Amino acid sequence: MDKLLIRGGHALNGEIAMSGAKNAALPILCASLLTAEALEFSNVPQLNDISTMLRLLGDMGVAITRDGDDGMVCLDGSTLNNPVASYEMVKTMRASILVLGPLLARCGEAKVSLPGGCAIGARPVDQHIKGLQAMGAEVKVEQGYVHARASRLKGARICTDMVTVTGTENLMMAACLADGETVIENAAREPEVVDLANCLVAMGARISGAGTDIVRIQGVDKLHGARHAIMPDRIETGTYLCAAAVTGGKVRLTRTSAAYLDSVVDKLLDAGCEIVIERDAIQLSAPARLKSVSLRTAPYPAFPTDMQAQFMAMNCVADGVATIRETIFENRFMHVNELMRLGANIQIEGNNAVVRGVGQLQGATVMATDLRASASLIIAGLVAQGETQIDRIYHLDRGYERIEQKLSALGASVERLR
Ligand SMILES: CC(=O)N[C@H]1[C@@H](OP(=O)(O)OP(=O)(O)OC[C@H]2O[C@@H](n3ccc(=O)[nH]c3=O)[C@H](O)[C@@H]2O)O[C@H](CO)[C@@H](O)[C@@H]1O
Ligand SMILES: C=C(OP(=O)(O)O)C(=O)O
């Protein structure tokens, strides 16, 4: 199993380009299930989750052409013949549930394994199922699989119990081919939902309100082929900003946008960083010592849960005491014990973590437990004295494209041990 060895103490300086967003690319690839015409996507990141999704779509009969080097992926759903997502596929990637809505809408049936819990929480999919039932689907959950049938879905008014990102995406895709209008209330406003909606509209869907909490979809008989460029990864961007901030560095991140990062940029300014926003780049200059910043995670446009662990790592070496409140996932503090192995001072009280900044972290061997926890350990390792070895980095390869090359290009000492 691959490990990462980091020799801390190098300030990150220079310029690197950001990749396409994992969490936009995953639902957008699933949109290929909605049409028999070809789709061409650019800026698709090379990540394990993307390979898993392409394998899953391939299993279902979608024809795939991928040019790894330039992020192009072409999908042709005219040969779709197997509306089934097996446990073997789904267990490695929760986002596989995103095939449920489009499969059902196009094929009239779908059999998709329940994703099950994961390190950060139970993550049920009851809202996805409730929404499809409201659209007239007959849904049974048996032997770990969701079996859904509907000769044609019917438009419906759906109000989800909580804001759910993939739930909104699944229902939005299903509604594109439903009979009549679907209204999703309490919809997720995440930029990735908007990117998916833009792609669906390019395919002929009739969607309004994406990016607000009420999305309206007027069903059409069929969708057609289209081209779409995946949006930049705001979480990858935020992660490199934190890495530069913690090491006292100065970086320019290109092929990205600050437009989706207001809450993160605000916290970095509060921490004492200087930030220059360009049209498709962001520059950050770190202060000699960061100030602690408290935060509370919540659905977009509030502070993203996917950046919580990275800010926790920054706060470990900042001046002062920060309170970090996680409100989205019930178990997203798995990185805390590992950060403490590096000398951090953190106390957990329910869904609050109180972080008291220390003068210096010390390198140690730590274990990555989930994707963003892994990122937080890298950030901590970059500023720790001596060597930090991070085990189980397969989590990292799900969501960060060429991370050791990108960090090395900024002057970090990072080595993959195989
Ligand atoms: C592939 C992808 O885009 N992943 C993102 C997506 O995950 P994902 O879409 O899985 O997360 P959700 O927005 O659905 O989850 C939000 C909360 O709602 C709960 N819930 C959700 C659906 C449901 O049917 N029932 C239910 O109880 C979840 O357990 C969680 O507590 O949004 C999360 C929250 O921004 C991010 O951390 C993930 O990176
Ligand atoms: C939790 C994440 O991803 P997923 O929903 O795919 O597990 C993430 O991107 O931080």
What does this protein structure show overall?
The protein has 14 helices and 24 strands. The chain is of the alpha/beta class and 418 residues long. The strands form 6 sheets. A 4-stranded mixed β-sheet has the order 22-23-1-24. A 4-stranded mixed β-sheet has the order 2-15-17-16, with helices on one face. The chain has a 4-stranded mixed β-sheet with strand order 4-5-3-14. Helix 12 links the parallel strand 22 and strand 23. Helix 1 packs parallel to helix 7. It binds uridine-diphosphate-N-acetylglucosamine and phosphoenolpyruvate. Uridine-diphosphate-N-acetylglucosamine binds next to helix 1, helix 5 and helix 6.
Key terms for this structure?
418 residues; binds phosphoenolpyruvate; binds uridine-diphosphate-N-acetylglucosamine; alpha/beta; globular
